Amino acid sequence: MHIPDGLLSTPVIVVTYAITVLAVAYSARKLKEMPEEKIPLLGLFAAGIFAAQMVNFPIIGGVSGHLLGATLAAVLLGPYAAVIVMTSVLLIQTLLFGDGGITAIGANILNTGLIGAFIGYWVYRGLKNINEGFAMGIAAWLSVVLGAALASIEIGLSHSLPFMKVLSLMVGYHALIGIGEAVLTVLIVYAIKARLPEIEGVPA
Q1: Which residues are CB-neighbours of 175 under 8 A, at least 6 positions away?
Q2: Nearest to 116 by CA among 196, 23, 30
Q3: Among residues 139, 142, 150, which one has the least CA distance to residue 3?
Q4: Which band of pLDDT confidence, cut at 50, 70 and 90, is reported for residue 65?
Q5: What is the pLDDT of residue 121?
Q6: Per-residue three-class SS string for 52-108
Q7: What pairs with residue 63 in β-bridges?
Q8: Beta bridge mates, 65
Q9: Which domains does the chain have, with CATH numbers?
Q10: Three-state SS across 17-61?
Q11: pLDDT value at position 63?
C-alpha cells in the first residue's frame, strides 16, 4: 500500500501532508497525558511493528501482505500513541529503506497509520461490548481496506492511473490481506496482554 514517488499530484501531496502533520502534532500533544513510565512502550512497539512488517504472508498470484499494526497499537496504547508509533515506523521505512516515496510520506502515513489508529480504534471501541476479539478483527480488517481505498482515491485524483482499475485491484487484494491483519492483530494483542499486564490502563 506504500505509494511511490511520481503517482500523486501536487495538490494531493499538499493536502495529505497537511492532514498528516496536523494529526501527528495533535497526537504528540495528547501524549503528554501518558504517564512517563509508559513512554518506553512507544519505542518497544515501534521496534516490534517494524520487525513484524518484515514478515510477509502469501495471498494469491504472487501478491503478499504484511502486518500494518496501526489498529493493534491503538488497541493497546490508544490512538494518539499509535499515530506516533506508526509515523516513526513509516518514516524509517521511507527514508532508510525506500519503501514508499518521500513526496508520498503524507499520504502513506495517512493511509496506513492514521486510518488504523483512529478509525480502527473507534470501530474497536464501538464493537468491544459485543466481543473484544471480534471487535479487534473487524477494526483491523477495515483499517486495511479503507487505507487501500483511500490510496486509490488519492491516485485517482492525481490522474496518474485509471481510478476504477486501481480501486478494484487495491480493495480486492487488501480485503484478503486484511484477513491476515485481523488474525495477527487479535493473536498479538492477546499475547502482549498476557505477558505485559501493565499495558492495561494506558490512556486512550
Answers
A1: 141, 144, 145
A2: 23
A3: 150
A4: low
A5: 96
A6: HCCCEEEEECCEEEECCCHHHHHHHHCHHHHHHHHHHHHHHHHHHHCCCCCCCHHHH
A7: 60
A8: 57
A9: 10-195 (1.10.1760.20)
A10: HHHHHHHHHHHHHHHHHCCHHHCHHHHHHHHHHHHHCCCEEEEEC
A11: 46
Query: pTM for the complete prediction?
Result: 0.91
Residue 137 C-alpha cell reads as 478483527
- Express each pLDDT in 134-181 by its tens digit: 999 999 999 999 999 999 999 999 999 899 988 998 899 899 889 989
Question: Please, is 37 exposed, middle or buried when counting C-beta atoms within 10 Å of its C-beta (0-12, 13-18, 19+)?
Answer: exposed
Which of 152-186 are b and which e, b meaning 16 or more Cβ less than 10 Å from the residue's Cβ?
bbbbbebebeeeeebbeebbebbeebbbbbbebbb
CA–CA dist 68, 32 (Å, integer): 25
Side chain identity, residue 191: A
Model confidence at 60, in pLDDT bands (50, 70, 90)? low
Is the separation of the CB atoms in 86 and 109 below 8 Å?
yes
Crossing angle for the helix pair 70-77 and 132-157, nearest 10 degrees? Answer: 130
Owner of C-alpha cell 527514508: 95
Residue type at 100 in one-letter notation: G
- Please give the Cα distance from 114 to 134 (Å, whole number): 21
Q: What is the DSSP letter of 198?
A: G
